[in-house]
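[recover] target loaded
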């Protein structure tokens, strides 16, 4: 009789529900838009931290007596990227090991602390250290924020939301360019750079305070055997979106198999091929993007622009990123992630050669705007595509590895970009165009389209 009762009870129990199905049933609403705003604010703050050294360098050089093209200038531009190279891999792995939320909070807090510390650095060496530690902290926001966003957004909206999140990079670029321009009109360069570093940490502080109400990823909680906490996280989403009865009596389905994985699994089998090709995309795009835009303010100034005009021009180029993101958000769901990434990268390769042939200030501005449009559209699509290609157990680790590939390129890019200032413009832009072309071919060679597909919990 006991066995019969158990069988009847099992038959009458509602079937379990996957996290994907639960999030899709709840739909898009206040929770996802709030998560986008919170992560976006931090992402804008990260953009400010990454790009501000290009704007701060004239003031730093004036205070510490650095010569144009000196090793100290290159090291200062490289220090943040070096920290991000280490931090992305470390924090991405930690997020898959201990959970998303702890890293979600810790990295932003450390980024604020070290960012403010740089504003008070009395020597070049201490400034380099502060910038390295800032990079180490903010390097962890990329893998965690994108894993969280991918795992909380319904399937039909996921691509657009991931591009929307990346578009906050343009917001940060506009803010740092506008802030640098304003400070240059109010203070001498040797004072303005300290205020720039200090004020750039404010958005991160606001973002940190807003993050405390976000739960951990239910997908990752299930993989760690925390079913009750996972259901509570999904119910929090349902209540925020005005769908408190969305789950009903159904339980969340446990993963099909408890497969032990390690970061080395990213390089095994079909997942290994995918990881290598993605790494080429991230490396090539990052080398070209940072090689051009981290040195562009100095390049324009060397061409005869005054500092105020340089900052205004950079602000205009940041505005050109917005239509690139908008088009990417449309295309990732219209023609797919793979074609969108490859197309924008190919346009970037063409734009690099058009920039090389520019012979007037107007054509320099126009081709720079085309590059800004194409490359930020590519970044938006890459950020939508990448987290969908990794299984949940390795999603943050995979995103961290891709970010490290980008930061490895960023460590090289200041040296290659310095060719822009020494007259070897054709060499530098040929390298960057090749990077974009190879990245476009690698994205196409991945051969997988994730548009409209639910995230997969099973390691390939």
């Amino acid at each position: 009789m006991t066995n019969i009762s158990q069988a009847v009870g099992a038959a009458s129990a509602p079937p379990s529900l996957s996290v994907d199905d639960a999030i899709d049933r709840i739909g898009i609403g206040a929770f996802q838009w709030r998560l986008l705003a919170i992560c976006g604010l931090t992402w804008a703050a990260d953009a400010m931290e990454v790009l501000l050294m290009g704007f701060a360098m004239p003031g730093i050089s004036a205070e510490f007596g650095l010569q144009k093209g000196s090793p100290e200038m290159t090291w200062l531009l490289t220090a943040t990227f070096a920290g991000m190279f280490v931090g992305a891999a470390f924090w991405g792995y930690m997020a898959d090991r201990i959970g998303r939320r702890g890293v979600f909070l810790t990295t932003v807090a450390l980024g604020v602390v070290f960012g403010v510390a740089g504003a008070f650095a009395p020597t070049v060496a201490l400034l380099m250290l502060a910038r390295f530690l800032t990079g180490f902290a903010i390097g962890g926001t990329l893998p965690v924020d994108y894993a969280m966003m991918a795992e909380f957004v319904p399937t039909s909206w996921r691509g657009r939301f991931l591009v929307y999140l990346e578009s906050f990079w343009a917001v940060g670029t506009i803010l740092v360019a506008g802030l640098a321009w304003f400070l240059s009109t109010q203070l001498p360069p040797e004072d303005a750079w300290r205020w720039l570093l200090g004020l750039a940490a404010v958005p991160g502080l606001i973002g940190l305070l807003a993050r405390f109400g976000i739960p951990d990823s239910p997908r990752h909680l299930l993989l760690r055997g925390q079913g009750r906490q996972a259901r509570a996280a999904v119910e929090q989403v349902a209540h925020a979106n005005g769908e408190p009865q969305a789950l009903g009596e159904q339980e969340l389905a446990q993963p099909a198999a408890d497969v032990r994985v390690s970061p080395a699994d990213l390089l095994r089998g079909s997942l290994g091929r995918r990881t290598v090709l993605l790494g080429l995309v991230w490396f090539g795009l990052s080398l070209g993007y940072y090689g051009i835009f981290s040195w562009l303010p100095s390049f324009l100034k060397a061409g005869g622009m005054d500092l105020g005009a340089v900052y205004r021009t950079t602000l205009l180029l940041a505005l050109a990123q917005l239509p690139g993101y908008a088009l990417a958000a449309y295309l990732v769901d219209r023609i797919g992630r793979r074609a969108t990434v490859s197309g924008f990268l190919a346009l970037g390769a063409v734009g690099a050669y058009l920039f090389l042939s520019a012979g007037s200030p107007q054509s320099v501005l126009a081709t720079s705007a085309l590059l800004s449009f194409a490359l930020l559209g590519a970044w938006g699509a890459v950020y939508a595509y990448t987290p969908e290609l990794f299984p949940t157990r390795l999603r943050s680790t995979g995103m961290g590895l891709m970010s490290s590939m980008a930061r490895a390129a960023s460590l090289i890019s200041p040296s290659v970009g310095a060719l822009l200032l020494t007259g070897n413009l054709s060499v530098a832009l040929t390298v960057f165009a090749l990077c974009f072309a190879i990245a476009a071919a690698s994205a196409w060679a991945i051969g997988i389209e994730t548009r409209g597909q639910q995230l997969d919990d099973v390691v390939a």
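[recover] notes: Residues 266 and 272 are 5 Å apart (CA to CA).
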